[in-house]
Write a structure and sequence with these properties.
two-stranded antiparallel sheet, 7 strands, 4 helices
């Protein structure tokens, strides 16, 4: 599969851009015919949400327009996602504090990524990026087996006795 890339700029004051950005990244990969299981879709949505939210909350600059740029590039089982914002201050990865409601975004990005980083841009601002693995496309037989398992569990859920599943319902 050939390398693919897309980039777009958004006004960081626009309502709903986090949801739009995460859904657009997943849709773009699917449009390029990359296979994504639900876990991978959720992981991409989470990471994009964190990067874009950080750019909105911490990326504004009084000297530059309130825009952020989002880029997504994919090739041979990897996806690279970057978010550029106008603020020169670099984010810092901090240990998650169980008492605080905020400050876990980069911890999540770090956990979900193969690699991530941040760099200042020559014209001002910064780029925060992540590299993630994409799952291999399952064979037709594997896809068929997965559909059968899903149908089986949908029509005959496990019976629970106490806290452990013991048998298929009939």
């Amino acid at each position: 599969m050939t390398a693919r890339g897309a980039r777009w700029t958004v006004d960081s004051t626009t309502k709903g851009i986090v949801v739009t950005a995460r859904d657009r990244c997943v849709a773009q990969l699917l449009a390029w015919s990359f296979w994504l299981d639900e876990d991978t879709r959720d992981t991409i949505r989470l990471v994009v949400s964190e990067l874009v939210t950080n750019a909105i909350v911490h990326g504004r600059s009084p000297r530059r327009p309130p825009t952020i740029e989002i880029g997504i590039f994919a090739h041979q089982g990897e996806v690279y996602i970057e978010v550029l914002d106008p603020n020169d201050a670099l984010p810092v990865l901090r240990a998650a504090d169980g008492e605080r409601e905020r400050g876990r975004g980069l911890v999540l990005v770090d956990c979900m990524s193969v690699q991530w980083g941040v760099e200042r841009l020559p014209h001002g601002g910064k780029r925060v990026w992540t590299l993630m693995k994409l799952p291999p496309r399952p064979s037709p037989r594997e896809r068929h087996r997965a559909r059968l398992r899903a149908q089986l569990h949908a029509t005959a859920p496990l019976k629970h006795i106490g806290s452990r599943p013991l048998a298929m319902a009939t």
